[in-house]
Amino acid sequence: MDKINRRKFIKSAGLAGGALSLAGVAGAGYSAGADKDSFTGYGRTAYGEDQFFNRKPFLVDKPTYVQEGEPVRITSIEDIFKRNGELSRLMFSRNGDQPAWKPSDGLDALPGYLRAYYQANPGAFDEFIKAMQKGREQRTNWDKYRDKYFIADAWSNAHSSPIRGRSSFPAEPQGKPEESDFRGVNKKRLKLKSPRHGSELLKKICYSFGASLAGIAKVKKEWVYQGSLRGIGRVDYEVPSHWKYAVVIAVPHEWDSMYANPTYGTSYDAYSKLRFIAGKMEVFIKELGYSARPHVPPTSYDLVMPPLAIDAGMGEQGRNGILITPELGANTRLAAITTDMPLEPDKPIDIGVSKFCKKCRICAEECPGGAISFKDTPGEVIRGYRRWKIDQNKCFTVWNSVATSHARGCRVCLSVCPYSRKNNWIHNFAREADPRDPTGLLASGLLAMQKKFFTYPGGQEYLPPPDGNNRTFGEAPGWLRTEEWFDL
Amino acid sequence: MFNNSNILEPLFWIIMGGLYTVFIIGLAMWLKDMKVKMNWWKWSLTLLWFILLSITVAGGFTLIGENELRAGLLFMAVPGAVIIVAGVALGRFLLRNTNEEKDN
Question: Which pLDDT belongs to residue A172?
């Protein structure tokens, strides 16, 4: 009798054990998904633990961007923010002077270099006028949304505060790079054991300052802007010989606000972090006895960041034109410090981003401005490199339209990218398995699930009414929702 | 499960290990009582099926935890349906010989 009961008991316990273990994995899974600590980056550790992906199996000798023809340096006015900076200086008076130009004066009244750009890029000027109009509408409509996005706006303004004005950190270079980059350099320099030691040390210091990712690249002249140099102004110049290496650093945006863009937050959270890290790196490198020049967001760059970061082995360029890294996906914001300190560059990686982007197109489908290419393969050769072209003018128009205050927040292409996911088991399986699958079948399967299972609002929905409904890809976190904290 | 507790988290996985052990011992008894003759590859298939079921449940709830309710439910429904069908097929296969014995 006892024996039978024991047997029955074990059999019943077995059934209960099976059911409970399934409940247990459900709970463990839920916890892994909900855990905020599985958001990676944002300086969570001082030891580089955020750079958790093992790059060694994916190191390659040549970067994955495709060179076709002779590389050409980008002129500064080809960059929309630098171009708009020039226009802004003309449109808005300084010291009470009359504005030198207003849009109604038309293209012909612009200085020759700007007129030449718009004549060479038909449609860009009209798009700029449209962006200005959208900006005016946005400012008029802002009162309707101010209360709803009150905390998000305050949060963004707090992040942008260290960037504004003359006291911003790091200070803008003054004068020639041969002077400004050496200003404050320690005259006492110890003998570095080797360039490899130099690279490892600088990366460790970057992590200790809060960088999520860090890499070292040799400065190629085609990544250096032409036509304008910080500290000098408009000038054609040769790449300074002391810009030998670049220490490239990356942090993500705060993940919850990034998923809830364009309305809940802006880019300034990552920008301000990068500025502090890069500014402190400038001081650190100068203390070691070498020249240093930080290149920081939003616009204080003399180099183009994504290709530099690709050279530094941090990731690859995606369809959306943004650097995609294994750890942060497209939620990667970049800064760099150029230096003459002897360093050993990192090798680039190939984790299959360019192949995946050919199939995916989610960012193109979701872009509210239609600024991202739908082409199957990178269709254009731009300054000597074949890539997908981003229509930066359309991007800027949307950026000027969304329901945020002065600091605009559209980062939809970052949030919808399937690479921009948490550091938990399910996404890490995809991260590790996909680049190891030579058939590409796994990527196709995962992409099919991504498109069928997940909810995407669709391009226009991210815009304010009447064009859209202020939708976001992810739900806004409670700490950014005004109604959770204030009576509305 | 208890990510921020360094006491409860290891305890949870120890208990999970115990539950899986109890499940396997119980399953072995069920199969023995049902006169199912198991060998290494039948055991491997059975345990593989249960692991796949566990992964599907865990995957679905991970997505639900990420605020992706629809994705989580579909993740459990679509691969889950395939796994349930595979499980029924596996069960019928394992029980086939016992049914034949009963018929004889």
Answer: 93
Same domain, B51 and B96: yes
Q: Report the percent of chain A where pLDDT is more than 90.
A: 78
Please count the CA atoms within 13 angstroms of the CA of A339 that sit on its side-chain side.
31
Give the rounded percent of residues in chain B with a pLDDT score beyond 90: 77
Q: Are residues B47 and B81 in the same domain?
A: yes
A9 CB contacts (<8 Å, ≥6 apart)? none
Mean pLDDT on A397-403: 91
Which domain covers residue B87, as residue numbers? Answer: 38-103
Q: Are residues B86 and B47 in the same domain?
A: yes
Which pTM value belongs to this model? Answer: 0.92
Q: Is the domain of B71 the same as that of B93?
A: yes
Q: Which of A249, A443, A279 is nearest to A362 (CA)?
A: A443
Instruction: Among B11, B63, B66, B69, pick the best mutation site for testing chain A contact (most A Cβ within 10 A).
Output: B66
Alpha carbon distance, N-terminus to C-terminus of chain B: 50
Q: Are residues B21 and B43 in the same domain?
A: no
Q: How far apart are CA A333 and CA A253, in angstroms?
A: 7
Residue A4: the pLDDT is 65
Residue A4, class by beta-carbon neighbours within 10 Å (0-12 exposed, 13-18 middle, 19+ buried)?
A: exposed
Show the tokens assigned to A433.
């398995």
- A29 contacts B59? CB cut-off 8 A: yes
How distant is the Cα of A454 from the closest Cα of chain B, in angstroms?
5
Give the C-alpha separation, A296 to A282, whole Å.
Answer: 11
- Per-residue pLDDT at B101: 59
Q: Name the residue with tokens 């863009």.
A: A261
State residue B104's pLDDT score: 54
Same domain? For B66 and B88 the reply is yes
Q: What is residue A40's predicted lDDT score, i.e. its pLDDT?
A: 85
Same domain, B44 and B88: yes
Q: Beta strands A227-229 and A292-295: pairing type?
A: unpaired
Mutate to test the interface with B, among A453, A455, A473, A475 (most CBs of B within 10 A): A453
> Residues B72, B28: one domain?
no
Q: How many domains does chain B have?
A: 2
Please report, for residues A358, A361, A391, the alpha-carbon distance to residue A377 in angstroms, rounded to integers and kept in the order given. Answer: 6, 11, 16
Which two three-digit tokens encode residue A17? 């054990």
Does A472 contact B at CB distance below 8 Å?
no
**Cα angle, residue B37 at apex, residues B32 and B39 outer, rounded to 5°:** 115
A339 vs A43, more confident: A339
DSSP letter assigned to residue A235: E
pLDDT reported for residue A379? 84
Query: Helices marked H in A338-407 — which ranges?
Result: 353-360, 362-366, 392-399
